Amino acid sequence: MARLLVNWRILALLGTMGGLLAFALWPTPVEVDVAAVSRGPLVVTVEEEGRTRVRDRFIVSAPVTGRVLRIELEPGDRVRRGDVVARVQAEVPPLLDVRTSAEAQAAIDVARAELGRARAEEQRAEAALTQAQRELERARRLTAAGVLSTQELDVREAEARLAEKAWNAATFAARAASAELQRAEARLTPASPRARHGAVAVAAPEDGVVLRRLRESESFVPAGEPLVEIGDPARLEIVVDLLSTDAARIREGARATVQPRTGAEAPLDATVRRIEPSGFTKVSALGVEEQRVNVVLDLADQAGEDTVLGDAYRVEVRIVVWEAPDVLKVPMSALFRAGDQWAVYEVRDGLTQRTIVELGQQTGREAEVLAGLDEHARVIVHPGDAVGDGTRVKERS
């Protein structure tokens, strides 16, 4: 009886030890985060930093070479069309030195001599024309009387026409010589009092606001030098340079949103007005050459007086390239690569199952599911190294 009791005790001890060993070796469920595959809208956007730009910008330049007087207008001042924004004193010709003055005087003497010779030639040609016309009249009377032949009359008519053309040429030569004399004399003509003391008023071409004052203090400027920039800051457009691969996905009229960098305002609605046909090369912050394309957007509601946006402000732009109201979608954090395909870990009855999925459009957070998953399927997000096919898991609370 004692021996039987000992055997039972040994068996109970062995059973207890086996249970403890089995409990220790039994796999512990891995805590995971789970999300459900759902249906809903999906919007694919291209996000990039842009800048605002006044749509109609006018650069007021100096109309003549001279000295611009101090510009009193400040950036932000309003101007109306025709208002004087700057005044430029025209350049006064500098005084000639002795050598230049002598050369100019010699040029005048040469021009006067040429004019005298041209007028003498004009007078000679005029006398020859008068004589040819007299000979022609005499030949006509003799031909009418039968004394002179018709052939002789034709010769006299040809001589009269040649004499007239020679007189015309001599007249034009005299006019050209007179103009050359005037040009030579102009080099020695002193500047008029009006040119010395007058100033040319530069007017604003349109109503607007002074955006930039390019010249403030009095200084000498050549003709065409920019002085002031004028525009209407209430009429803004957005310019954003995108990678050429992203720009190729965008179409004119696409919907977009613009978020000011201040964050104080709600996003503004905008539409793509133009995609420029030519690209340009830009070096990124990492030193990589990128091919970029400028895309111009119009704000749906033009900025008001109380807007925080102005000219050349930085904004965040999101342009819609694709959207659908109802698609099956899965979080991007649940996807991982399985060879050349995408896969997820489904959770079924506490166990994981690796499922190959076919994706469509993708955003940074969600992806469109074309095949492989059903609605309401539960998938693991951010699967770690401890999760594999057939792993027992437990949803993290």
Task: Provide the fold topology.
Blueprint: H1 2-25, E1 30-36, E2 38-54, E3 57-61, E4 66-68, E5 78-79, E6 84-90, H2 98-145, H3 150-186, H4 193-197, E7 200-203, E8 208-213, E9 219-221, E10 226-231, E11 236-243, H5 244-247, E12 255-260, E13 268-283, E14 289-299, E15 314-331, E16 336-338, E17 341-348, E18 351-362, E19 366-371, E20 378-381, E21 393-395
Parallel strand pairs: 1-21
Antiparallel strand pairs: 1-20, 2-11, 2-15, 3-10, 4-6, 4-9, 5-8, 6-7, 8-10, 11-14, 12-13, 12-15, 13-14, 15-19, 16-17, 17-18, 18-19
Helix pairs in contact: 2-3
Short summary of the structure?
The chain has helices at 2-25, 98-145, 150-186, 193-197, 244-247, and strands at 30-36, 38-54, 57-61, 66-68, 78-79, 84-90, 200-203, 208-213, 219-221, 226-231, 236-243, 255-260, 268-283, 289-299, 314-331, 336-338, 341-348, 351-362, 366-371, 378-381, 393-395. By secondary structure, it is of the alpha+beta class. The protein has 4 domains: 30-41 and 326-395, conserved putative lor/sdh protein from methanococcus maripaludis s2 fold (Beta Barrel), CATH 2.40.420; 46-54 and 233-324, Elongation Factor Tu (Ef-tu), domain 3; 59-90 and 202-231, RNA polymerase II/Efflux pump adaptor protein, barrel-sandwich hybrid domain (OB fold (Dihydrolipoamide Acetyltransferase, E2P)), CATH 2.40.50; 98-190.
Q: Can you characterise this structure?
A:
- The chain is α+β, with helices and mostly antiparallel strands.
- The chain has 4 domains: 30-41 and 326-395, conserved putative lor/sdh protein from methanococcus maripaludis s2 fold (Beta Barrel); 46-54 and 233-324, Efflux pump adaptor protein, beta barrel domain (Elongation Factor Tu (Ef-tu), domain 3, Beta Barrel); 59-90 and 202-231, Beta Barrel (OB fold (Dihydrolipoamide Acetyltransferase, E2P)), CATH 2.40.50; 98-190.
- The protein is 30% helix and 39% strand.
- The protein contains 5 helices and 21 strands.
- The chain has helices spanning 2-25, 98-145, 150-186, 193-197, 244-247; strands at 30-36, 38-54, 57-61, 66-68, 78-79, 84-90, 200-203, 208-213, 219-221, 226-231, 236-243, 255-260, 268-283, 289-299, 314-331, 336-338, 341-348, 351-362, 366-371, 378-381, 393-395.
- The strands form 4 sheets. It has a 6-stranded antiparallel beta barrel with strand order 2-11-14-13-12-15.
- Helix 2 (98-145) packs antiparallel against helix 3 (150-186).
- The two termini are 55 Å apart.
- The mean pLDDT is 84.
